[in-house]
Specification:
By secondary structure, the protein is an all-alpha fold. It is built from three helices and no strands. The radius of gyration is 16 Å and the shape is elongated. The relative contact order is 0.22.
């Protein structure tokens, strides 16, 4: 039973936004070397903020998809 195939459009959009946030947080970690040395607090806040936002959005999308498909098996 795979929930990914039965996602509604809202859940797919939230899941996509969560994956974009995840990719951006990993990219910031890899490419922001000189910026990280100059502005350490801002860099860490941006990186961990995007990562936590990605986790929350992905959890929200899967939870709303599971709620919408309760009667459909």
């Amino acid at each position: 039973m795979c929930l990914h195939r039965r996602l509604d459009s809202r859940s797919r959009a939230i899941l996509g936004l969560g994956n974009i946030c995840l990719f951006t947080s990993v990219s910031v970690s890899l490419w922001g070397t000189t910026f990280a040395l100059q502005h350490r607090a801002l860099f860490n806040g941006l990186r961990f903020g995007l990562l936590s936002l990605a986790i929350c959005l992905n959890f929200w999308a899967m939870r709303s998809a599971a709620r919408g498909n309760k009667g459909n098996t």
